[in-house]
């Protein structure tokens, strides 16, 4: 991110703009104290598009890139084909470990009430949690010894960890911080594999056959499941009774089979999450963005004008709640 002298742009004062990655910064040949051309991508996100070379000061220094992790000091690495440099010390770099704990406990993952950024840092600093499997060994008395941790909060956290046994397998998979596996991909993988044991036995080619799983994601899943630390985490969770397979349920229907649907706006009859489940239960696929592959948009009140305009340009159908529910009841 570039720190800029404040400038008024499209109605707002811009002080920071995206630099994307090293490749783009080198392509732009950005030096310290340069005068830059900035625009708003999609009228929202400020980004740098060029440098005014005539204004460059004599002796200006090119931007220097860090070569080592600023926290643990490990030399950074760049995977072939990727733009980002990363710290490879995933089991010894504090922010990576605490970030995985926080991700694991988040509401859309394992939903452990009481574990956020601050508590994850406390657990790491006290030596209580160095990998997510350690959470299943926490006791109330361990937590009560932490700074600012009372008996009620400690009990709430332990109860939250116990309740992860009820979390569906697809969310368990999402919680594991598998590289490039987001919520939608985790659902696809969980449903295709059916169980953790079956997933761990799959080859890269079998993983690539799953919808939304390309070569990079497939290799990432395969490598993750063969990492000894990740295997230990999975075994700790298994021993604690965490769900390791999909329930055997019949599909509600196939009315939306092969369709990709975008949800936008606010709804009256059901919540957005409920509509997402309906789409998946009836064979459809949820997407967060409108494209030429979108079958239709399920629109509630206050659908954004940008999405409306994109639907118009692409000729994509817009269905209201009543029309959508009628479609499912045919």
Give the end-to-end Cα distance, rounded to a whole number of Å.
51 Å
**What's the number of extended β-strand segments?**
8
The CATH homologous superfamily of the largest domain is termed: 5' to 3' exonuclease, C-terminal subdomain
If classified by CATH, what would the architecture of the largest domain be?
Answer: Orthogonal Bundle
Q: Let me know the average pLDDT.
A: 92
Provide the succession of SSEs: EEHEEHHHHHHHHHHEHEEHEH
Number of helices: 14
- How are the strands of the largest sheet arranged? 6-5-7-8
- Give the low-confidence spans: none
Computed over alpha carbons, the radius of gyration is 24 Å
> Quick one: biggest sheet?
4 strands, parallel
Strand content: 5-15%
Given this structure, which CATH class of the largest domain is correct? Mainly Alpha
Overall structural class, as computed from helix and strand content, comes to alpha/beta
Provide keyphrases for this structure:
330 residues, alpha/beta, OB fold (Dihydrolipoamide Acetyltransferase, E2P), DNA polymerase, domain 1, 4 domains, four-stranded parallel β-sheet, two-stranded antiparallel sheet, 14 helices, 38% helix, globular
Secondary structure: elements and pairs:
Layout: E1 2-9, E2 12-17, H1 22-28, E3 36-41, E4 45-51, H2 94-105, H3 117-125, H4 140-144, H5 151-162, H6 169-175, H7 183-193, H8 196-201, H9 204-208, H10 215-224, H11 228-239, E5 260-264, H12 272-281, E6 285-287, E7 296-299, H13 305-314, E8 317-319, H14 321-328
Parallel strand pairs: 5-6, 5-7, 7-8
Antiparallel strand pairs: 1-2, 3-4
Helix pairs in contact: 2-3, 6-7
């Amino acid at each position: 991110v570039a720190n800029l002298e404040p400038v008024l742009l499209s109605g707002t004062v811009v002080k920071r703009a995206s630099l994307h990655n090293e490749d783009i910064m080198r392509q732009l040949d950005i030096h310290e104290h340069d005068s830059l051309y900035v625009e708003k991508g999609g009228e929202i996100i400020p980004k740098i598009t060029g440098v005014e070379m005539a204004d460059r000061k004599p002796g200006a220094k090119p931007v220097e890139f860090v070569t080592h992790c600023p926290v643990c000091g490990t030399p950074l690495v760049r995977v072939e084909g990727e733009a980002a440099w990363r710290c490879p010390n995933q089991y010894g770099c504090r922010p990576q470990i605490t970030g995985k704990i926080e991700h694991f406990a988040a509401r859309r993952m394992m939903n452990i009430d009481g574990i956020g950024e601050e508590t994850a840092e406390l657990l790491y600093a006290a030596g209580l949690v160095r990998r997510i499997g350690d959470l299943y060994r926490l006791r109330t008395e361990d937590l009560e010894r932490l700074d600012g941790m009372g008996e009620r909060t400690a009990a709430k956290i332990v109860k939250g960890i116990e309740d992860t046994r009820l979390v569906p397998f697809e969310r368990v998979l999402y919680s594991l911080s598998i590289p490039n596996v987001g919520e939608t991909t985790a659902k696809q993988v969980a449903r295709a594999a059916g169980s953790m044991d079956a997933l761990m036995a799959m080859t890269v080619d079998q993983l690539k056959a799953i919808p939304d799983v390309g070569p990079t994601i497939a290799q990432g899943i395969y490598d993750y499941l063969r990492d000894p630390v990740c295997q230990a985490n999975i075994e700790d969770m298994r021993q604690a009774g965490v769900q390791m397979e999909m329930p055997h349920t019949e599909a509600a229907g196939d009315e939306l089979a092969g369709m990709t649907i975008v949800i936008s706006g606010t709804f009256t009859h059901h919540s957005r999450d409920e509509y997402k489940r309906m789409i998946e239960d009836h064979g459809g696929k949820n997407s967060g963005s409108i494209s030429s592959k979108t079958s239709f948009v399920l629109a509630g009140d206050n659908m954004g004008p940008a999405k409306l305009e994109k639907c118009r340009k692409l000729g994509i159908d817009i269905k209201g709640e009543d029309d959508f529910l009628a479609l499912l009841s045919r």
